[in-house]
Amino acid sequence: MTSNDNSAQDNSEQIEAWNGIMGAKWVAAQDRLDRMLAPFSAALLKTANVAPGERVLDIGCGCGATTLEFARAAGSRGRALGVDISVPMVERARDRARAEGSHATFEIADASSHAFTPASFDVMASRFGVMFFADPASAFANIRSSLTEEGRLAFICWRPVTENGWVTVPLRAALAHVAPPQPGIPGAPGPFAFADSAHVTSILTRAGFRNVAMTPFDAMMTLGSGPNALEEAVAQSIEVGPVGRMLNDQPREIIARVRESMRSELAKHATADGLALSGAVWIVTARA
Fold first, then answer.
1. Would you kindly state where each structural domain of the chain is located, as residue ranges?
2. How far apart (Å, rounded) are the C-alpha atoms in residues 255 and 242?
């Protein structure tokens, strides 16, 4: 697959979103998000199994948490490159790398069309960064061209919304005050675009990957901890994720009502160790 202007243009909506309010929210919530997604980061690192000296391409790297881990695993003889379309998130990732003295590097790039050097990576990995391509089969074909002949793929994506308590619990509170969003087209770009395992397998097969495997993985996600666990969880649920997008254009009084309902709903899940809700993902692996 060669890069082309059309694929970049098709992703323009995502590029605009992640360089606007969505990107800014994720940068502001970076510490909380890294903690919330920590079980999935650990699962991805274990699955990717990066060895010293290997070269890793981290797609949709966001604020850099997983890229920094891959750089540690690859060591000084290896390489870890994180790419993302979000300028504010990549800038945050670069700041973190400098602060840690990491050799991880980051580029602002659309992985669906970026001209990667052929056969320059041993591993392609991603934590929730590959579900937003306008033409996913074409995008993965482009990414595959960057892998060596025996290169491997490992990424994590969400299973259906109904299996993810971190979405359904806050959503239940929000829907008491706002109309539900219009049903999206199944498989359309978005957080849950890869919920259907058959759909993902078809995409990767058409992109030229082989030995595609999808393994379900579940973990509890900490939305809040410490003495302010409930308020942290409310803020997290309103600022990012599906509920946050639903409230973008709502008046302040509606957001205040949603906040109160959400506080009551989330309080049911508070424990002495914090406030956690279930998360359900696919761990996806394949060979180039």
1. 5-163+183-222+278-287
2. 14
Beta carbons of 54 and 123 less than 8 angstroms apart: yes
Alpha carbon distances (Å) from 170 to 180, 227, 272, 279: 13, 20, 20, 13
pLDDT the model gives residue 241: 76
38-48 and 65-74 are packed helices; what angle lies between their axes, rounded to 10 degrees?
30
Q: What are phi and psi of 168, to 5 degrees?
A: -70, -35
DSSP conformational letter for 115: -
CB atoms within 10 A of CB 268: 8
Please tell me the distance from the alpha carbon of residue 207 to that of residue 203, in angstroms, as a whole number.
6
Tell me which residue of 34, 70, 33, 30 sits closest to 53, measured CA to CA.
Answer: 70
Cβ pair 156, 40 in contact under 8 A: yes
Give the homologous superfamily in CATH for domain 5-163+183-222+278-287. Answer: Vaccinia Virus protein VP39 (3.40.50.150)
Segment 54-71, tens digit of pLDDT: 999 999 999 999 999 999
